[in-house]
Amino acid sequence: MADTTKAQANIGVVGLAVMGSNLARNLASREGNTVAVYNRSWEKTNTLITEHPEAGFIASEKIEDFVASLQKPRTAIIMVQAGKGTDAVIDQLTELFEPGDIIVDGGNALFTDTIRREKAVRETGINFVGAGISGGEEGALKGPSIMPGGSAEAYQTLGPILSSIAAVAEGEPCVTHIGTDGAGHFVKMIHNGIEYADMQLIAEAYDLIRRGTGKSPAEIAEVFAEWNRGELESYLIEITAEVLRQVDAKTGKPLVDVIVDQAGSKGTGVWTVQTALNLGTPVSGIAEAVFARGLSSHPEQRAAAIGLPGPSDEWTVDDKDAFIEDVRLALYASKIVAYSQGFDAIAAGADEHGWNIDLGAVSKIWRGGCIIRAQFLNRIADSYAEVPDLKLLLSAPYFADAMSKAQDAWRRVVVASAQSGIPAPAFSSSLSYYDGLRAERLPAALVQGQRDFFGAHTYKRVDAEGTFHTLWSGDRSEVQAVDSH
Fold first, then answer.
1. For residues 111 and 189, is the Cβ–Cβ distance under 8 A?
2. How far is CA 223 from CA 206, 228, 348, 410, 452, in A?
3. What is this protein's function per UniProt (predicted)?
4. Quick check: 185 pLDDT over 50?
5. Does the global pTM surpass 0.85?
6. 457 assigned binding-site residue
7. Whose CB among 162, 183, 333, 440 lies 3.0–4.6 Å from 178's, allowing a Cys bridge?
8. Omega of the bond prior to 443 within 30 degrees of 0, cis?
9. Residue 123 appears among annotated catalytic residues
């Protein structure tokens, strides 16, 4: 039991499943931290303190004792399942904490829930921080990328603690104050959306190489390992090589051939797409990745589609090495689009909710500890450092040059996927997005004409200011100026 007569811990963790336990161990391993721990079930708490006596945890069976064991201003990180469980713990702590204390939600909460919670808790004088924590179980233990929101006041206390446990990239801790209320969880949500796109693009690259060249998973693993030594260097490319090398102990087959081809989802990718739609910001690469998982998870429809016609000619690759290089370039270009769309969504969210988010700082804290850490995040940081109000990441010189070098190969790969009947939705949609940006004029003009025809939705003209409506009656219809005030 905790000694309730004297506060001893500078930080506490509530919720001791794997992520919470690992985060508590990480905190305890850093100089200057003493960690209080509490779980609704004493069994998990007891297991943690028994297995890791070196951590010096201050453990409590009752939440009242947990609160009493914290130094003021009290700071507690909640690591419980998002939803009602989080709300229940927040309510408990709010009743026991005092003004100036800090409650941190370190789970994968929907950012609108965080906005609601922060507003409610703020009325009590207590600080509420929604903090995105990326890196999975290993990151929580060894150093995650951390994206805290909340007030500047709260970050004064919380910042040094989070900096002590965050991953370090090029000498800098992978944590920064993202912005007020739900900004931290918003950025973490977009991070996860980019992660969806990145994973789908890698999967499409693997599928094209395997079906186009006939290489085995183990041989393709070596391709990815080679890619990881160049501009595609990233955590996801690295682990892809490891996954493809694995042999199933039971069957002796490549493990990837034994795993059922139905991809799961925990919802953050869906949230990203829904939010982007509400913001009017295209994230087509992320959306296609979400849809691809959805398609994979409908075996009954896929079974019903067996026998539907496909390409009449068998597809073959004449120069396998050249094709693999084309896929590498297409992957790099599509990956850049995914990140560009993600940063567009962050900027749009910041405008909508009044957050002052430093996009360059976000790219820097993603360089270590998180799932989408990649070499070229430094290039993103450089781009925003050179032009802080950069409107389109793709237009930055480094990325424009990368697109110039990759686009011919990218187009060949998309053509090959279509001609061969191999689905590559993320590659294809990313290229279409890129070409949509480049287009001097889009067919949206026709869409506006259609909308005005059937719904009098009006339109604007290229040769005059104002808003207009056409009285449609043949090819010489009457145009009316519409008073927009």
1. yes
2. 10, 9, 37, 18, 52
3. Catalyzes the oxidative decarboxylation of 6-phosphogluconate to ribulose 5-phosphate and CO(2), with concomitant reduction of NADP to NADPH.
4. yes
5. yes
6. yes
7. 183
8. no
9. no
Instruction: Compute φ and ψ for 191, nearest 5 degrees.
Output: -50, -50
pLDDT at 3: 44
Residue 252, Ramachandran bin (φ over 0: left; ψ between -120 and 50: alpha; else beta): left
Instruction: Please state the rounded mean pLDDT for residues 467-473.
Output: 91
Tell whether residue 420 is among the known ligand binding residues.
Answer: no
| Amino acid in position 476 | R
Place of tokens 């007891």: 46
Query: Domains in the chain, start-ordered, CATH in brackets?
Result: 11-177 (3.40.50.720), 188-438 (1.10.1040.10), 443-480 (1.20.5.320)
Largest CA distance in the chain: 87
- Cβ-based neighbours of 59, under 8 Å, separated by 6 or more: 1, 2, 36, 37, 38, 45, 46, 48, 49
Given the residues 62, 84, 188, 391, select the one marked as catalytic. Answer: 188
Task: Express each pLDDT in 97-132 by its tens digit.
Answer: 999 999 999 998 999 999 999 999 999 999 999 999
169 is in an annotated binding site: no
Show the tokens assigned to 331: 């992957």
Catalytic one among 6, 62, 170, 195? 195
**136 assigned to a ligand binding site:** yes
Task: Return the pLDDT at 473.
Answer: 80
Per-residue pLDDT band at 484 (split at 50, 70, 90): low
Active site residue 72: no
